[in-house]
Amino acid sequence: MSFRRxxxxxxxxxxxxxxxxxxYQAAVDLDIDLVVLAGSTDDSAVVGGAPHRLGSSSCLADIxxxxxxxxxxxxxxxxxxxxxxxxxxxxxxxxxPASPALSLAQDKxxxxxxxxxxxxxxxxxxxxxxxxxxxxxxxxHGWPVxxxxxxxxxxxxxxHLIESLDQVAGLFEQGPLEKxxxxxxxxxxxxxxxxxxxxxxxxxxVALYPAVQTVxxxxxxxxxxxxxxxxxxxxxxxxxxxxxxxxxxxxxxxxAVEMFLDTRGQLLVNELALRPHNSGHIxxxxxxxxxxxxxxxxxxxxxxxxxxxxxxAATVNLINGTDTCDPSARLPxxxxxxxxxxxxxxxxxxxxxxxxxxxxxxxxxxxxxxxAQAAAALLTEP
Length: 382
Hints:
Blueprint: E1 10-14, H1 18-29, E2 33-38, H2 44-47, E3 52-54, H3 60-67, E4 72-75, H4 82-90, H5 99-106, H6 108-117, E5 125-127, H7 131-141, E6 145-149, E7 159-162, H8 165-168, E8 182-186, E9 190-200, E10 206-208, E11 212-217, E12 220-226, H9 232-248, E13 253-262, E14 267-273, H10 283-286, H11 291-299, E15 313-319, H12 331-335, E16 340-344, E17 354-361, H13 365-380
Parallel strand pairs: 1-2, 1-4, 2-3
Antiparallel strand pairs: 5-8, 6-7, 6-8, 9-10, 9-11, 9-13, 11-12, 12-15, 13-14, 15-17, 16-17
Helix pairs in contact: 1-11, 5-6
């Protein structure tokens, strides 16, 4: 297939967080005109120099304004009302991913339902709107139960581990909720968590990245290892599942498929993200083509890049503790660690906030992790 690059390529990205910031850096490399919709001049991408328009991702007029004249519209988050996405498509804007696919990242209950009906293994689940619903689910699947918000939650927000009915009462104390707002899931005995990153172009070409093993704490990803230290048959199955999902939902751009490997050796699909993803930050140094370059190439329907692993790698996220220390103040000390690749997001310190990440390559993932953790400690310790 022949590809033709237009005289100028313009991409509008809804959102201006760190994902948009790193996408902008890739856009500069490829001479792509990228503009972001930012809620504030303090947003990470804006601080990083990205051309921007101020507005709200929940306002249709603001989205239309930033998208005007763009070849494609893409996203660094899922928090755009579905009705706005559908209206933009009706007006002729090219959304990549399109609204039907993006809805699976916006609504966990919809995603669970679609994946389950398509034959993909997922944890047992059910919509719930009252303590009685949760009790009935627990009778069928046992305690504890995971109760989570179907929309809006990320980094552990909106996810509750419920060990008895007494704990769930507070979630529903304001009266019955719409069934689409909450879902209950069985508690999975997890042996490992992994993410499969795959890029899919408008024409249906795909590029699969090596599997990433993620280590979570309180619902927040603390560090990543690439390649994942899991049996080859598990990795192969995970890759096949991710490709089948990408094709089945007609994904465009980067798709991250988060999975659990339970203690029985079964793979379960957890969540989908149809955008560059935290698990893909490691690709900047570890792979031939970063997820950010790849996302732009995919949404513009350009040839996809190689995903070859250059070296075993590890990434450590810089999560602000309760002391709200600023890692930029300690940057010179961390830069003295050989092999540490430091990425700061230009974000003001706040407890629990992700302020950056450190990636290191090594002869093994263990060696890489040791290097990344050494630099991260210098950046985050009080």
